[in-house]
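Inputs:
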Amino acid sequence: MSARRTLLLGALGLAVAGGLWSLSAPRPMDASALAALDGDARAGSAVFLAAGCGSCHKAPGREADPEILSGGREFASEFGTFIAPNISTDPEHGIGGWSQAEFINAVMRGVSPDGRHYYPAFPYTSYIRADPQDMADLYAYMMTLPADATPSRPQELGFPFNIRRGLGLWKALFLSDDWVVTGDLTEQEARGRYLSEALSHCAECHTQRNALGALDTGRWLEGAPNPSGRGRIPAIAGPDFDWTEFDISAYLESGFTPDFDVVGGTMADVVANLQQLDKEELDAIAAYVMRAR
Amino acid sequence: MTLKRFLGASALCAAIALPALADDDPAIAARQGQFKLFSHNFAVLGGMAQGRVDYDAEAAQTAADNLFHLTRVDQGRLWPEGTDSASVEGTRASPDIWDDLDDFVAKFGALQEAAETMQEVAGTGADEMRAGVGAMGQTCQACHEAYRDEAS
């Protein structure tokens, strides 16, 4: 190989590496616009329930205290074990010291206040579709919750998944604020889509993932293996799902299936949260799910 | 091959064989039948509570009587060790049941209490019955949340 060719290849390699490095950089939203939003804690409590924050972040073994968001719950996956961090208002171990803009960038872009990527086990992949005003309300509400000084545990991931910078490339490929179900939606269906695709993140469990862990939007809500390894997350769309709109809304309100089996597993938390919302919200989710099939 | 090596190899084959099937185990089949009877009767009350069918005091009372008696069937032979979802294919009974048997039994006790209340209120009016359905559903959910795996 001539010296000139070596030089050219080297330059090309550097250019690719530089391109990847730049492509993997965190892309936060404009902080000044986010800081200007005026959050309402009362409205934020409904966002908190719809977004299901507590389901993952409440302390295992302290289920009686759903407002203690000290984290620690483990989520097994083929990439390793994700461990929910402390998002209580503790200023050192939680998010008590975060500004509103830092909070919204974490939730909607998966970027930490110190500019690192979060793993998409945290469903910012859904929250990216949220209305920033709802996130400001959520921030106002969560800042009223108790502090807990339990330290967050490090994620238990193997190489190369433990390199957070690589998530920037993952985001460049898969992070999108486009709606998945599109077309001419009624006002109710659109509200249901907002609740389901942006806040309640139904698809994060009910949709199959590809080899890189991104949702396969071609099989939206058609069920998926349980990442824990035991059983399957059921289909809520597609040929294997035959519930009516009434059935879906009634299930989210009561936890009762059309056969009057009763909800369990991780979905029990989802129902416990959603049943506190207005019935119109559950009807909207049901209308959306019917539309998604 | 010596006998010892043959036995060793056989044991290994048995250990890596597919898990046993739930249909082959009478205790699993019996307890799954029991839960089907629970939901078959609970559906009568739940259907009325959700307005799928009109309230009928007599039908509600019959279903509640059934649930009272069904939840009093002795559970002693229905949950042998080794019949969890990690050991047998086709059961959703989490291994956690046997790790925390006292809590599992306590949660079943809560179901029995709810069934007793249900029996007292089911025939007395639609609103009373509806409250009983909610309370009984909570006891089902508490146990399913802790001890039932996803279906496969």
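Chain A is about 45% helix and 5% strand. Flag for discussion at group meeting.
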